[in-house]
Write a structure and sequence with these properties.
The protein has 226 residues and is α/β, with parallel strands linked by helices. It has 7 helices and 10 strands. The chain has a single domain, classed as P-loop containing nucleotide triphosphate hydrolases (Rossmann fold, 3-Layer(aba) Sandwich), CATH 3.40.50. It is globular and about 50 Å long. The two termini are 25 Å apart.
């Protein structure tokens, strides 16, 4: 089943003297339970593309479809749609420092309209499944980089999204913790059918995904899986 389709996505940035073309006429689609890597060097537009696909940014032109329905960033219900259908994992975690790991994970479910008690219960279950049962009441500054990223992944999954975008999710981790996160993503994909789109500069990470793309000079091309 097709979850996401992007048609002829263009993104330009303009200043007084020139136009910078970041994304050039990109077509892209992803099906349920796909495990996708988008590889590119720093500054290649990977983050921009993920933000557009995840409805955090608007393309200069082109269309985004979820489940064959056109979705616009101008939609008044867009934040609710993102909350229910899309998860995000960022390189820098963006955990709320005044809340525990358990509370950080529970907040998106609470925002979606569920009770705080139920949200905490679901967050506890999810974090325990990710090996964080001994760290539930710890604050972000009391967690290691890998534990913070596990918390961020749990937060992205709390509302059972149809698709999860991960932007350089291992960029700030050492090699040991980086591979823990990649293996965790593969496990979640296999066990629960979560769809992941991962932006990375690391070829080794790409080699662990099922579908590979390369973004270079604004052009997205699918690569053969070795």
């Amino acid at each position: 089943m097709e979850v996401l389709r992007a048609q002829r996505i263009v993104k330009n940035y303009q200043d007084a003297n020139s136009v910078l073309n970041i994304l050039k006429d990109i077509d892209f689609s992803v099906n349920k339970a796909d495990l996708v890597a988008i590889r590119g060097t720093s500054g290649s537009g990977k983050s921009t593309l993920l933000h557009i696909l995840g409805l955090l940014d608007e393309p200069t032109s082109g269309n985004i479809y979820y489940f064959d329905k056109l979705v616009s960033t101008k939609n008044r219900d867009l934040s609710q749609f993102r909350n229910q259908h899309i998860g995000f994992v960022f390189q820098f975690h963006f955990l709320l420092m005044d809340f525990t790991a358990l509370e950080n994970v529970a907040i998106p479910m609470f925002v979606s309209g569920k009770s705080w008690k139920r949200s905490l219960a679901e967050a506890r279950k999810l974090l325990t499944g990710l090996g964080m049962d001994q760290r539930l009441k710890h604050y972000p500054n009391q967690l290691s980089g890998g534990e913070q990223q596990r918390t961020a992944i749990a937060r992205a999954l709390i509302n059972r999204p149809d698709i999860v975008f991960a932007d350089e999710p291992t960029g700030n981790l050492d090699s040991k913790h980086a591979w823990e996160i990649i293996n965790l993503i593969k496990h979640l994909n296999k066990e629960y059918g979560h769809t992941f789109i991962i932006a990375t500069h690391d070829q080794n990470i790409c080699n662990n995904m099922n579908i590979h793309y390369k973004l270079d000079k604004g052009v997205l091309e699918q690569e053969a899986v070795l």
